[in-house]
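Working notes for the structural subgroup meeting. M.R. asked for a predicted model of this chain before we commit to crystallization trials. I am recording the input and output together here so anyone reviewing the notebook later can reproduce the run.

Input as submitted:
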Amino acid sequence: MLTLATASWYHHRCAAGDGARGPRSRKSGLCAKGWNPVMKVPLVDLQAQHAELAPRLEQAVLDVLRSGRYVLGPVVERFERQFAAWCGRRFCVGVNSGTSALHLALRALGIGPGDEVITVSMSFVATAWAISYTGARPVLVDIDPVRRTLDPAALLEAITPRTRAIVPVHLYGQGADMEAICQIAQAYRLPVIEDAAQAHGAEIQGRRAGRWGHLACFSFYPGKNLGACGEAGAVVTDHPQLARRLRQLRDHAQASRHDHRTLGYNYRMDALQAAVLEVKLQRLEQWNRRRSRWARLYDRLLRPFAQVQRPAWFPESPSAWHLYVVQVPHRDLVYRYLRGRGIEAGLHYPRPIHLQRAYAHLGLGPGSLPMTERLAATCLSLPLHPYLNEEQVQYVCRELKTALDLLQRGGPEALEPHLPEERPAAPEPSPEEQPEQPFPFQAEYDDEEELWLDRHLGTEEFPPAAASSRWAGLAAHAAGESQAEAETGFRLWESSRPQAEPQQAAWLRRRFAATEADPAEPLSPVEPARAERSAEPDSPTP
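Returned structure, recorded in token form:
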């Protein structure tokens, strides 16, 4: 009797017809003799998701269409309130993509040309794009090979007088080591922007991903744990001044209607996507539990495979399991074999950012980031979504074992006859070709906003959840100061960075001068500017 699962199998009968399973013909993809069932297992299944929610989704979209309010408006505002509460933050600013969310977060902090922003190379390239859009330089560092996220030791070594922000990436749904990262950031008075594009619902030391940094950025690309029916993104924060600045920048930098005080963008979220996300947000917890269930099953079935390096589990920081990524030898051959067997495996990401031609000008060649490059060369994403079933997971593991057994017995030559034909790849660019240099994008910034940010970032409302004496001590040791002195701001820089350029030193003095006597209540962006003008009566009125 056929079950629902076996009904989805495609059975092919070969001419021999004796029922024995044999090797497939390279040309046809069928077995040489006997039955050779192939099960279709998608990497994500958005059709199944839509089928589950179709009546509610279609009604929500229809309500927006009838309202005539398609860009921002009440539906977007309602979703922003709901998502901010879900993340445990005070404010959410909806935008048109995760890339735009990162760009606006950097702009809101006043980051621009001449600045450096530290992040990882093992991420989707949009993380670096956002930094480059501001004119700043991405400083790409290595990952922790177990957690696969920003290595705090590498972060500590990469900080320079030009460093203006840190962007840790919660990769594959696993949260970065935010306790250590935030201790280092606090010691150096650096803002933290979380790239949480793959971490909707991940937890880190009892706090959700997105609750650690000054700002956190999410993508709602359709394949994410929480995905729109198109492009969308969001920035969350607890700082009202940053939220106000983000809202202005996303809407052509309008302080009020037709009042544009700085360079702005058309990064607004549309109401149709907000309506879809509002419906899906109510199912996100349930979907994440299903993802965790299938990840645990993968883990149990793959445990006997010595050739498979499974993702690590962190009980105190459970993953959102956006992806289940294993590391295997001869990854490209195994990937082709699985695809030929109906399994839509993925590669996230086979070429890290520092080896992309777009970032050749950074000067990081092969071997620069060994842990990143090892993961990029061996990573293999197995299908993972809420609508998997146990037979599909077993089938994926069985076919993965078949590929690895063939490799172990006879090497790549043994697996080659079982691979489907591959389309010829596009020719690689000639090494003599010079990479295009990024356009030096110069931005204008609002002096009053910038003054407020200089005064309050890194000093207001940002203690890490639990003090880590190890990382606080490391940061202080690197600065050559005691832990108490490491928290005083500029004195840390002045003593540990004597090689800082004069203009950098001047900028740091200005930035940290206010930390000696912080006001009890945060100043508005306008008040410090007025105070500065009153101290300089001869300065011209702007």
